[in-house]
Design goal:
The longest helix has 17 residues, at 11-27. Strand 1 (34-38) and strand 2 form a beta hairpin. This protein has a domain at 31-61. The chain is built from one helix and two strands; from the N terminus they run αββ. It is α+β, with helices and mostly antiparallel strands and 61 residues long. A two-stranded antiparallel ribbon has the order 1-2. The radius of gyration is 14 Å and the shape is extended. It has one helix at residues 11-27; strands at residues 34-38, 47-51.
Length: 61
Amino acid sequence: MTTEETPLTSADALNAKLKALLRRAHASGIDVEGGWECRNDTEHPDWDVIVTEVEKDEESA
């Protein structure tokens, strides 16, 4: 990632970035299901991220 990325300005933009990241990881053979602690410096909060696979509904299949 670069520091010159376009700022996220909405939940939809965040979702699109997360979707792209998860697709790249999955395509690279990384098991994306699980939990990660995202520790940051003092200027940003820390987060716990949990990814679970969900069953597709018939409309999205």
